[in-house]
């Protein structure tokens, strides 16, 4: 497995989500059918919210595949027992099925709420749960019975193992009714005692900080509400959410869905659980048109917050029921369930997509022996409800914290459809003293640009320079212990405005120099295993005092090899390029002395290079050093032919793990070792399970999984691949196998507890055939051939987005040049081979070659009276382009450095709306359903100071300097972005009545040079975008073309109190790019077949006096617009829009989350650069080390700062 094996001594059950619900389809166009993959899905709050938030008149097709594997946050605070991980995911998904099917049965909402959220149930709610569980048990006896039952039309089960596990879990719930009175009494007493013991004293303080996240932009006002903290206290003291009417005489019983957890009938619910955490509360701290008479601060109560959550829950459930009822004959809503490990599930989906094989030789989860087979019926040819294997939405929750970002990208990115609308979401929960962006980059283990090229995906906020989803509320709760950051990854080259206009698309793989690529891969290797570098470990501990982070390990050598597989697939292998690259990489690893365990893990690295078919020659060459006789000697003597690797299975008494249950050391990592002579080899990629060892009639070994897991009597078995040469390197009695705890700062306590410095838990020598078993394959899994050469799917080529190259030219190479440190890209080059005979002649005769840049990812090459537009796999900077011309060889090379969309000559294109699909795609703004968002009640008596402070955070530190300077920056794109944000600040402030005598409802864009006004904005309302933690202006825009201006002049003259937003020519162009995005993101109407976006691109025109919008748009005013008498004559000319705010990356905001050294990211007080005073360092050494990077901006920042008023 591509993740270290972790042993969790104590369990926690994460029954409920701890972040507010999000719209999973927020980046999909209106008509796009949704194919969603939820990895680590948790409870179904976001599924319900997504259905409720759907825009009308859109696609009704929603196919969601849910995979949950309940892994706790690693560390002292949140451990989980090892053999309970699968059970944890099972419990979450089994509860989700109960919730969704109860909604289908029209059970009263208050009872559904009780069953899903309350720790204790009244008799009526318990009876509903028991009765429903019995029905589910009957339906889940077989997959055929389930699929033909009342719920099989919208809930599908991916594999038989999941269905069987559901059946056993639901039976536990149903059998509660069979308990005798004494059994019920004992059951309740045990449950209550354990429930009270789980609640720590500090939960109310932590709860206050955590729940502030749910108030979004109202986080600061919400911090005054002490009922937020009391919601935790009340829930954990009473075990139920507050009720409008309470009867103390009601008999309450333990809720079986919380009682039967990972260790049986034990209460293992996580102490941070709070039903309110999945809902939105910004609207509770401000007056809205829907609820204008808000209670005062003195009337805050837990009941009030609970009622708000229950109102949202009821709306979501009703929307789900309506969707089901509307699709009874032709189901458009499908939710697929899988309980198991994420990496295994993604790998199996990849294999099925590539080969049609429903299994790739993996187990369903660690600590389980069941093979993962997609045998639920929908992954077969001719299935009536075929399951998708590619998705336009992949949400990974906060798995990044648990299994590592690289592992997520390796397993999930091949499953993402390579289309402009597709998004892969990752979430990061980092410590409050960490730099969020630095933590993200550190987790990526490499340069963002280079990793984006290899995976074909890029974090959209990094490439855009802004977010439309705010996390500014994390600053308000900076006293908390964690910072939450959600990141959308998009297909890298899909940001180009109109890919279909490209004449040549690079379908060629990436080409590197052998040395540069090998050195880059070596840098990634060192970053993945940085905790093995003792010098870095000591330095990190000294600077931060944090020993928990250094004990959290996400990767082993199999993880690195799976990443190498991605690189191998993305690069061009000519002239033994890959072989030479791997030879140099392995040579560097062999000679490296920085990683203390580098050579100890070398044999495992070679093993997986062979297993994954990345570089199988390495292990063959090593084995070739042994003569044929030796490879068939010792423990391999019974083999009839040579094998390169074998499977070793260790049979370990479970008592060997007892010390890990007695000593509180967090979540120790287990590793297997083989001692040969004086050295030892570490194998951290092994599969553990508790199983009985049996023998068949022929004496063959069989393993029977012990369903009781660690609580049973069976030994632990650990299986892993080993090179054959290792087992014949010494006499059998000189080869020893060990299971031990990996040394980390957290596990050092074991040294003094009897394990010694080596921290061995168990050992056995090779001749012990009862405890050391050698085979050609893993226990109870598919044949070894399937494991040795798995079908590892390739990430789609960059060119799969687009049209193929035209006949006159062909892109034969995509050349990547790295810098001197081999860690980042200097230039990206495309080689354009000229195929057309006439063009060849003109080129040979010396035709002049010139270039221009129509969009961030495209460069147009002009020569011989022709123009060819080339699509690059990443945004490039045309201002620094270099062209190499080969007249005789008939090719042209175009080389340009990669760039941020906001810092190039193409900076005006930083709000792309891609027009290649049948419908436009807003690339880096989320879509909204305006009519469901709460509208702010605007009145002079209401203070919106919170909104003013919130909007100040839309400016980065550098933008604030620019705003206050008298001299504009030389960087035009920075100036334009500042001007756009200034315009938005004015629009939002005046619409909300901030610092003005009266709120404004009509705004006009006026050109400062010509004096003409080009656009009118009619504000309907200012709304809370709850899921995005921001605000939007709901408005209708009127594009005043020359023709329309003359026609409407009589009506325009009647408009009063127009608030003018002054723009220059460049700003006017920016708004022409912005308006299509603002109108498209809230669209509820359909584009026509002859839409001008298809023929003219987006925007339709940049010329003054013309409209950037297509002709399909006008004539869809909002209800609020139509209600204003003076506006009525313009109804058929306006288009509804959702104007939003743009937020910088958080650590670059005006008020930073914390103070960090710009050189090493160490938190704490810093000394400012004396010239610019804009950045700080912890000391002179860091300042010197960072000078090469900082000097590019220091002078400009200093000049701008000197212009402060």
Provide an overview of this structure.
α2 crosses α6, α8 crosses α10 and α20 packs across α23 (577-591). By secondary structure, this protein is α+β, with helices and mostly antiparallel strands. The protein has an eight-stranded mixed beta sheet with strand order 5-7-3-2-8-9-11-10, sandwiched between helices. Strands 1, 15, 16, 20 and 21 form a five-stranded antiparallel beta sheet that branches. Strands 13-23-24-29-28 form a five-stranded mixed beta sheet. The protein starts with a strand and ends with a helix.
Which SSEs are present, and which pair or pack?
Blueprint: E1 5-6, E2 34-39, H1 45-52, E3 62-68, H2 85-104, H3 109-117, E4 120-122, H4 123-139, H5 143-148, E5 155-157, H6 160-174, H7 181-198, H8 203-211, H9 219-222, H10 227-238, E6 252-254, H11 256-259, H12 302-326, E7 333-339, H13 342-355, E8 393-395, H14 400-403, H15 405-412, E9 423-431, H16 436-444, H17 448-455, E10 457-459, H18 460-464, H19 473-476, E11 482-491, E12 504-505, E13 510-511, H20 514-528, H21 534-544, H22 557-570, H23 577-591, H24 602-611, H25 617-624, H26 628-631, E14 645-652, H27 658-662, E15 669-676, E16 679-683, E17 687-695, E18 701-705, E19 716-723, H28 724-727, E20 735-741, E21 760-765, E22 772-775, H29 784-788, E23 809-818, E24 825-834, H30 837-844, E25 850-855, E26 858-863, E27 866-871, E28 882-886, E29 891-896, E30 913-914, E31 921-922, H31 945-952, H32 957-964, H33 972-991, E32 1002-1007, E33 1013-1025, E34 1030-1039, H34 1042-1052, E35 1058-1063, H35 1065-1080, H36 1092-1096, H37 1119-1122, E36 1135-1139, E37 1167-1168, E38 1176-1177, H38 1180-1201
Parallel strand pairs: 2-3, 2-8, 3-7, 5-7, 8-9, 12-27, 13-23, 32-35
Antiparallel strand pairs: 1-15, 4-6, 9-11, 10-11, 14-19, 14-22, 15-16, 15-20, 17-18, 17-19, 20-21, 23-24, 24-29, 25-26, 26-27, 28-29, 30-31, 32-33, 33-34, 34-36, 37-38
Helix pairs in contact: 1-12, 2-3, 2-6, 3-4, 4-6, 8-10, 10-12, 13-15, 20-23, 22-24, 32-33
